[in-house]
Amino acid sequence: MMSDFSRLGVAAIRDGVAKGEFKAVEVAEALNARVSAAKALNAFIVETPEKAIEAAQAVDADRAAGKPLGKMAGVPIGMKDLFCTQGVQTTAASHILEGFLPTYESTVSANLWKAGAGMLGKLNMDQFAMGSSNETSYFGNVISPWRRNDGSNAALAPGGSSGGSSSAIAARLCPAATGTDTGGSIRQPAAFVGISGIKPTYGRCSRWGVVAFASSLDQAGPMARDVRDCAIMLEAMAGFDPKDSTSLDLPIPAWEAGLNSDLKGKRIGIPREYRLDGIDEDIAKMWENGIAWFKDAGAEVVDISLPHTKYALPAYYIIAPAEASSNLARYDGVRFGLRDLPEGAGLQDMYAATRAAGFGEEVRRRIMIGTYVLSAGFYDAYYTQAQKVRALIARDFDNAWASCDLILAPTAPSAAFGLGEKNADPLSMYLNDVFAVPASLAGLPAISVPGGLSKEGLPLGLQIIGKALDEQAVLNAGLAIERRSGFVAEAAQWW
Amino acid sequence: MSVDKDTVNKIARLSRIAISDAEADKMVGELNGILAWVEQLGEVDVTGVEPMTAVITNKLRLRDDAVTDGDVRDKVLANAPAKEGSFFGVPKVIE
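^ inputs. structure came back:
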């Protein structure tokens, strides 16, 4: 019987290959064809069908030879274009890195290849991961496979910054993809397209070879169509790396084997500060459903307070641009990437011309904000104050853990919005990350799982935040929701 | 605190980003909008609070002071937009 390989997740492909029900190469061929036929979504910047086939052939050969297979053996995935891939163009979706061919492989992608995964291609994203709608890519907007049920066919945002990842998974071009999360960039896009995505504890996944945005926040994680697939892929991605000074030197738990949706004895905190005035009706309803599902799973639901919540976004929009302005200083037109050398220009003019031509508008804006808040005379008022507030936000979570084990909140304040609807004012776009940013600032693991549909028929995401290093509890709670939400909706194919 | 056009031009210079006059005008409004919004952090009482330096407690590792990498000149130069022999090429910096 021919399987429709696009319907299989990570676990199903891995198990089917291991049992010999089908060959890894068959899966790779089927998904290569789907990727190639889905250009209308603009989810991929570069397609690498030969890489997917090569990895699959190696897995098939290993199986034939009776060798042990890796955790992701035979699973073709998409790789966010923030991860350096040796010999394959890596751009962070920016013109300034167009044509850049890394001479090395990021630790996370190397871990995935070692586990037997193959690469379908490099996924589009917001430029340097700065954005919440995938409208800042130099390579064009990514389109969500979802459409509203009003017949308007308006092109919707797949979320950001990992919007190529979310769009490709929801459109079943790949069973899973890497994402990175600096202030919600895994969770918000996962919520917008009805898939799951987990940002692990800061330091679980190596940042080595990942194009840097804000180093104290950047954390890689998996995105997939269910919680088990996220657990499998996170195990393959994570691990200590001596090349990243903030990498955690801890063993990686067997998250997949530890999955258990029984939440008896768990206390779930509902942060009252997340109940914003004028909260979207659909979001409020989904949140109530989530609370009921947790109770049904045996958990005790408690009210908690995270008093500094409203300061998380403004603190983030000082800290992240400050770190970005420093990290992005390396794009100078000398060592790699674009060079713009106007006639007769000196070195300083070359830097300025190169960076003006190479960085997109949002990236230039954030570099300038970061430069300003770090400049002499303003550093203490902005940057130091923001880092103090960040300490208070982390303390809020520490205090909350006295009365709960997990926190349940919406992932985003709304369903997916239309492309172009929010980009006139940078601030209104920033506000989309209001529920996602606090966990990022505190370095905590957090997952988004589908929680239902809006009145317009669009997916909504529930977020579960856990204690540092307790990814298992976060995954288990995600599984408990998955088992109860009955979320099976998918985007009808139009692309 | 708010910024004027001179300040925007100064920030652009510090950022090594060339901006046109029209861009500077536009940026004044945008930066002031964002700065006015982040200003609310000033109302938080941070008495006795140390600025955060690490989200997860982690000891800074030291490694042996030994060569562990190197001899990769050609790889380092592989993506240079301009190179001469084994050097990065840049415009003349000394008149």
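Residues 338 and 461 of chain A are 38 Å apart (CA to CA). Chain A touches chain B through 71 residues (CB under 8 Å).
thumbs up if we can close this ticket
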